[in-house]
Amino acid sequence: MLQDSRRSSVLSGKSDELGEGWRSPITRRVFLVSSAVLAGTMMTSASASPQGTETMYGLISKVDVVSGQRDALVSILLEGVAGMPGCLSYVVANDPENPDAIWITEVWDSQASHDASLSLPSVQDAIAQGGPMIAGFSERIVTAPVGGHGLTS
Amino acid sequence: MLQDSRRSSVLSGKSDELGEGWRSPITRRVFLVSSAVLAGTMMTSASASPQGTETMYGLISKVDVVSGQRDALVSILLEGVAGMPGCLSYVVANDPENPDAIWITEVWDSQASHDASLSLPSVQDAIAQGGPMIAGFSERIVTAPVGGHGLTS
Protein backbone atom coordinates (compact mmCIF):
# COMPACT_ATOMS: atom_id res chain seq x y z
CA MET A 1 0.00 0.00 0.00
CA LEU A 2 3.04 2.23 -0.02
CA GLN A 3 2.78 5.04 -2.48
CA ASP A 4 6.13 5.20 -4.18
CA SER A 5 5.53 8.68 -5.49
CA ARG A 6 5.07 9.98 -1.99
CA ARG A 7 8.04 8.16 -0.62
CA SER A 8 10.30 9.27 -3.39
CA SER A 9 9.34 12.88 -2.85
CA VAL A 10 10.65 12.60 0.69
CA LEU A 11 13.86 10.91 -0.22
CA SER A 12 14.75 13.06 -3.19
CA GLY A 13 16.11 16.09 -1.43
CA LYS A 14 18.29 18.78 -2.82
CA SER A 15 21.72 17.67 -1.81
CA ASP A 16 23.24 21.09 -2.29
CA GLU A 17 21.17 22.33 0.61
CA LEU A 18 22.67 19.89 3.04
CA GLY A 19 25.97 21.61 3.69
CA GLU A 20 29.03 19.79 4.97
CA GLY A 21 29.28 16.31 6.36
CA TRP A 22 26.97 14.39 4.02
CA ARG A 23 29.54 12.52 2.08
CA SER A 24 27.95 9.11 1.53
CA PRO A 25 24.62 8.29 -0.07
CA ILE A 26 23.62 6.36 3.05
CA THR A 27 24.37 9.24 5.36
CA ARG A 28 22.54 11.61 3.08
CA ARG A 29 19.53 9.33 2.93
CA VAL A 30 19.41 9.04 6.70
CA PHE A 31 19.56 12.77 6.99
CA LEU A 32 16.76 13.25 4.52
CA VAL A 33 14.61 10.65 6.19
CA SER A 34 15.29 11.92 9.67
CA SER A 35 14.73 15.49 8.61
CA ALA A 36 11.39 14.51 7.22
CA VAL A 37 10.48 12.66 10.40
CA LEU A 38 11.65 15.21 12.83
CA ALA A 39 10.62 18.31 11.04
CA GLY A 40 7.89 16.89 8.88
CA THR A 41 9.45 18.56 5.89
CA MET A 42 8.98 17.57 2.32
CA MET A 43 12.14 18.57 0.54
CA THR A 44 10.26 19.06 -2.69
CA SER A 45 7.36 20.89 -1.16
CA ALA A 46 5.74 23.74 -2.97
CA SER A 47 5.39 27.16 -1.45
CA ALA A 48 2.43 27.86 0.78
CA SER A 49 -0.86 29.01 -0.59
CA PRO A 50 -1.83 32.68 -0.17
CA GLN A 51 -2.40 33.79 3.39
CA GLY A 52 -5.88 33.07 4.64
CA THR A 53 -6.50 30.22 2.25
CA GLU A 54 -4.06 27.74 3.72
CA THR A 55 -5.34 24.35 4.68
CA MET A 56 -4.04 22.08 7.36
CA TYR A 57 -1.28 19.70 6.40
CA GLY A 58 -0.96 16.18 7.73
CA LEU A 59 1.59 13.40 7.64
CA ILE A 60 1.39 9.75 8.63
CA SER A 61 4.78 8.05 8.70
CA LYS A 62 6.05 4.62 9.60
CA VAL A 63 9.71 4.80 10.55
CA ASP A 64 11.99 1.77 10.66
CA VAL A 65 14.36 2.08 13.59
CA VAL A 66 17.84 0.59 13.99
CA SER A 67 17.30 -2.49 16.13
CA GLY A 68 17.32 -1.77 19.85
CA GLN A 69 17.18 2.00 19.42
CA ARG A 70 13.44 2.59 19.47
CA ASP A 71 13.07 3.91 23.00
CA ALA A 72 16.03 6.21 22.55
CA LEU A 73 14.69 7.56 19.28
CA VAL A 74 11.22 8.09 20.71
CA SER A 75 12.68 10.09 23.60
CA ILE A 76 14.63 12.28 21.23
CA LEU A 77 11.59 12.84 19.04
CA LEU A 78 9.37 13.79 21.96
CA GLU A 79 11.92 16.25 23.29
CA GLY A 80 12.82 17.70 19.93
CA VAL A 81 9.37 18.45 18.61
CA ALA A 82 7.94 20.41 21.53
CA GLY A 83 6.81 23.94 20.83
CA MET A 84 7.03 23.94 17.06
CA PRO A 85 5.11 26.94 15.65
CA GLY A 86 2.07 25.88 13.67
CA CYS A 87 2.20 22.27 14.89
CA LEU A 88 -1.33 21.28 15.92
CA SER A 89 -0.63 17.63 16.69
CA TYR A 90 2.46 15.42 16.73
CA VAL A 91 2.01 11.93 18.14
CA VAL A 92 4.72 9.30 18.37
CA ALA A 93 3.55 5.69 18.73
CA ASN A 94 5.24 2.32 18.95
CA ASP A 95 4.21 -0.38 16.50
CA PRO A 96 2.87 -3.20 18.71
CA GLU A 97 3.80 -5.85 16.14
CA ASN A 98 7.27 -4.64 15.19
CA PRO A 99 9.77 -3.71 17.93
CA ASP A 100 11.83 -1.79 15.41
CA ALA A 101 9.12 0.48 14.04
CA ILE A 102 7.28 3.61 15.12
CA TRP A 103 4.39 5.58 13.68
CA ILE A 104 4.34 9.36 13.65
CA THR A 105 1.14 11.28 12.93
CA GLU A 106 1.34 15.03 12.43
CA VAL A 107 -1.05 17.92 11.82
CA TRP A 108 0.18 21.39 10.91
CA ASP A 109 -1.75 24.59 10.34
CA SER A 110 -0.13 24.82 6.90
CA GLN A 111 2.55 23.19 4.84
CA ALA A 112 4.59 26.36 5.26
CA SER A 113 4.73 25.91 9.05
CA HIS A 114 5.74 22.33 8.59
CA ASP A 115 8.50 23.24 6.17
CA ALA A 116 9.78 26.02 8.40
CA SER A 117 10.15 23.70 11.38
CA LEU A 118 13.24 22.12 9.86
CA SER A 119 15.31 25.16 10.73
CA LEU A 120 14.35 25.24 14.40
CA PRO A 121 17.33 24.64 16.71
CA SER A 122 15.42 21.98 18.66
CA VAL A 123 14.71 20.11 15.47
CA GLN A 124 18.27 20.46 14.28
CA ASP A 125 19.43 18.96 17.56
CA ALA A 126 16.99 16.09 17.21
CA ILE A 127 18.19 15.42 13.68
CA ALA A 128 21.77 15.26 14.87
CA GLN A 129 20.95 12.87 17.71
CA GLY A 130 18.21 10.76 16.17
CA GLY A 131 19.30 10.51 12.57
CA PRO A 132 21.68 7.57 13.09
CA MET A 133 18.89 5.60 14.78
CA ILE A 134 16.64 5.73 11.72
CA ALA A 135 16.92 2.91 9.20
CA GLY A 136 14.31 4.15 6.77
CA PHE A 137 10.65 4.74 6.01
CA SER A 138 8.00 2.12 5.32
CA GLU A 139 5.11 4.51 4.90
CA ARG A 140 4.81 8.20 4.17
CA ILE A 141 1.33 9.53 3.60
CA VAL A 142 0.34 13.15 3.11
CA THR A 143 -3.16 14.09 4.28
CA ALA A 144 -5.37 17.17 4.34
CA PRO A 145 -6.80 17.29 7.88
CA VAL A 146 -10.26 18.78 8.17
CA GLY A 147 -10.83 18.82 11.92
CA GLY A 148 -11.35 16.76 15.02
CA HIS A 149 -10.34 16.56 18.63
CA GLY A 150 -6.86 17.31 19.96
CA LEU A 151 -5.71 19.95 17.50
CA THR A 152 -3.95 22.53 19.66
CA SER A 153 -1.41 25.21 18.90
CA MET B 1 1.36 -2.92 3.22
CA LEU B 2 -2.06 -3.79 4.47
CA GLN B 3 -1.98 -6.20 7.34
CA ASP B 4 -4.68 -8.72 6.63
CA SER B 5 -4.70 -9.97 10.19
CA ARG B 6 -5.53 -6.52 11.47
CA ARG B 7 -8.16 -5.90 8.85
CA SER B 8 -9.86 -9.21 9.41
CA SER B 9 -10.09 -8.57 13.13
CA VAL B 10 -12.10 -5.46 12.38
CA LEU B 11 -14.40 -7.08 9.92
CA SER B 12 -15.02 -10.26 11.84
CA GLY B 13 -17.54 -9.05 14.36
CA LYS B 14 -19.89 -11.10 16.43
CA SER B 15 -23.06 -10.97 14.41
CA ASP B 16 -25.24 -11.97 17.33
CA GLU B 17 -24.41 -8.66 19.00
CA LEU B 18 -25.80 -6.64 16.15
CA GLY B 19 -29.48 -6.90 16.93
CA GLU B 20 -32.16 -6.38 14.33
CA GLY B 21 -31.83 -4.91 10.89
CA TRP B 22 -28.59 -6.48 9.70
CA ARG B 23 -29.99 -8.95 7.26
CA SER B 24 -27.48 -8.93 4.42
CA PRO B 25 -23.74 -9.59 4.57
CA ILE B 26 -23.07 -6.27 2.88
CA THR B 27 -25.12 -4.33 5.38
CA ARG B 28 -23.49 -6.15 8.25
CA ARG B 29 -20.06 -5.47 6.87
CA VAL B 30 -20.80 -1.78 6.46
CA PHE B 31 -22.02 -1.66 10.02
CA LEU B 32 -18.95 -3.37 11.33
CA VAL B 33 -16.64 -1.13 9.36
CA SER B 34 -18.49 2.03 10.29
CA SER B 35 -18.63 1.00 13.92
CA ALA B 36 -14.92 0.56 13.90
CA VAL B 37 -14.38 3.92 12.25
CA LEU B 38 -16.76 5.89 14.32
CA ALA B 39 -16.15 4.32 17.66
CA GLY B 40 -12.69 3.00 17.09
CA THR B 41 -13.79 -0.36 18.36
CA MET B 42 -12.21 -3.65 17.52
CA MET B 43 -14.96 -6.21 17.72
CA THR B 44 -12.51 -8.88 18.77
CA SER B 45 -10.63 -6.72 21.22
CA ALA B 46 -9.42 -8.17 24.45
CA SER B 47 -10.40 -6.73 27.79
CA ALA B 48 -8.43 -3.85 29.20
CA SER B 49 -5.31 -4.38 31.21
CA PRO B 50 -5.49 -3.94 35.01
CA GLN B 51 -6.12 -0.40 36.14
CA GLY B 52 -3.00 1.68 36.39
CA THR B 53 -1.10 -0.32 33.84
CA GLU B 54 -3.08 0.67 30.79
CA THR B 55 -1.25 2.11 27.86
CA MET B 56 -2.57 4.47 25.26
CA TYR B 57 -4.26 2.93 22.28
CA GLY B 58 -4.00 4.28 18.76
CA LEU B 59 -5.62 3.63 15.42
CA ILE B 60 -4.74 4.78 11.92
CA SER B 61 -7.46 4.04 9.39
CA LYS B 62 -7.99 4.71 5.71
CA VAL B 63 -11.68 4.67 4.90
CA ASP B 64 -13.05 4.29 1.39
CA VAL B 65 -16.10 6.49 0.97
CA VAL B 66 -19.03 6.03 -1.38
CA SER B 67 -18.30 8.35 -4.29
CA GLY B 68 -19.48 11.89 -3.71
CA GLN B 69 -20.22 11.38 -0.03
CA ARG B 70 -16.91 12.39 1.51
CA ASP B 71 -17.82 15.85 2.77
CA ALA B 72 -21.06 14.55 4.24
CA LEU B 73 -19.31 11.69 6.01
CA VAL B 74 -16.59 13.95 7.37
CA SER B 75 -19.22 16.28 8.84
CA ILE B 76 -21.00 13.39 10.51
CA LEU B 77 -17.74 12.06 11.92
CA LEU B 78 -16.69 15.42 13.31
CA GLU B 79 -20.03 15.93 14.99
CA GLY B 80 -20.38 12.40 16.25
CA VAL B 81 -17.03 11.99 17.91
CA ALA B 82 -16.96 15.10 20.06
CA GLY B 83 -16.68 14.59 23.80
CA MET B 84 -15.88 10.89 23.86
CA PRO B 85 -14.49 9.92 27.29
CA GLY B 86 -10.87 8.83 27.13
CA CYS B 87 -10.38 10.13 23.60
CA LEU B 88 -7.13 12.08 23.52
CA SER B 89 -7.01 12.79 19.80
CA TYR B 90 -9.32 12.10 16.85
CA VAL B 91 -8.38 13.72 13.56
CA VAL B 92 -10.27 13.35 10.30
CA ALA B 93 -8.34 14.13 7.12
CA ASN B 94 -9.09 14.03 3.42
CA ASP B 95 -6.79 12.04 1.16
CA PRO B 96 -5.38 14.63 -1.27
CA GLU B 97 -4.88 12.02 -3.97
CA ASN B 98 -8.17 10.15 -3.70
CA PRO B 99 -11.45 12.10 -3.57
CA ASP B 100 -13.21 9.06 -2.16
CA ALA B 101 -10.93 8.35 0.79
CA ILE B 102 -10.31 9.76 4.24
CA TRP B 103 -7.77 9.05 6.96
CA ILE B 104 -8.70 8.88 10.62
CA THR B 105 -6.03 8.95 13.32
CA GLU B 106 -7.07 8.27 16.91
CA VAL B 107 -5.43 8.19 20.33
CA TRP B 108 -7.24 6.84 23.39
CA ASP B 109 -6.14 6.67 27.00
CA SER B 110 -6.79 2.92 26.90
CA GLN B 111 -8.31 0.29 24.69
CA ALA B 112 -11.16 0.04 27.20
CA SER B 113 -12.16 3.68 26.61
CA HIS B 114 -12.04 3.11 22.90
CA ASP B 115 -14.20 0.01 23.13
CA ALA B 116 -16.70 1.72 25.41
CA SER B 117 -17.21 4.59 22.99
CA LEU B 118 -19.27 2.39 20.71
CA SER B 119 -22.21 2.56 23.05
CA LEU B 120 -22.30 6.35 23.29
CA PRO B 121 -25.53 7.84 21.86
CA SER B 122 -23.59 10.32 19.74
CA VAL B 123 -21.58 7.50 18.20
CA GLN B 124 -24.67 5.41 17.65
CA ASP B 125 -26.23 8.33 15.79
CA ALA B 126 -23.12 8.75 13.69
CA ILE B 127 -23.13 5.06 12.83
CA ALA B 128 -26.73 5.26 11.70
CA GLN B 129 -26.10 8.32 9.53
CA GLY B 130 -22.61 7.64 8.25
CA GLY B 131 -22.61 3.90 7.84
CA PRO B 132 -24.19 3.89 4.37
CA MET B 133 -21.52 6.33 3.14
CA ILE B 134 -18.67 3.96 3.95
CA ALA B 135 -17.55 1.55 1.24
CA GLY B 136 -14.80 -0.16 3.22
CA PHE B 137 -11.35 0.04 4.76
CA SER B 138 -8.04 0.17 2.94
CA GLU B 139 -5.86 0.43 6.01
CA ARG B 140 -6.37 -0.35 9.66
CA ILE B 141 -3.33 -0.04 11.88
CA VAL B 142 -3.21 -0.41 15.65
CA THR B 143 -0.52 1.60 17.41
CA ALA B 144 0.73 2.12 20.96
CA PRO B 145 1.10 5.89 21.35
CA VAL B 146 3.86 7.02 23.68
CA GLY B 147 3.41 10.78 23.75
CA GLY B 148 3.60 13.98 21.80
CA HIS B 149 1.78 17.22 21.24
CA GLY B 150 -2.00 17.58 21.02
CA LEU B 151 -3.12 14.79 23.33
CA THR B 152 -5.98 16.31 25.28
CA SER B 153 -8.85 14.79 27.22
Secondary structure topology:
The structure is a homodimer of 153-residue chains.
Chain A: H1 4-11, H2 25-39, E1 57-65, H3 70-80, E2 87-94, E3 101-108, H4 111-116, H5 121-130, E4 134-149
Antiparallel strand pairs in A: 1-3, 1-4, 2-3
Outline:
The structure is a homodimer of 153-residue chains. Chain A has 153 residues and is an alpha+beta fold.
What does this structure look like?
The structure is a homodimer of 153-residue chains. With 153 residues, the first copy, chain A, is of the alpha+beta class. Chain A has a single domain, classed as Alpha-Beta Plaits (2-Layer Sandwich), CATH 3.30.70.100. Helices cover 33% and strands 27% of the residues of chain A. The first copy, chain A, has helices at 4-11, 25-39, 70-80, 111-116, 121-130, and strands at 57-65, 87-94, 101-108, 134-149. Chain A has a 4-stranded antiparallel sheet. In chain A, α2 packs across α5 (121-130) and α3 (70-80) runs antiparallel to α5 (121-130). The interface between A and B is large, with 39 and 39 residues. β4 (134-149) of chain A pairs antiparallel with β2 of chain B, so a sheet runs across the interface.
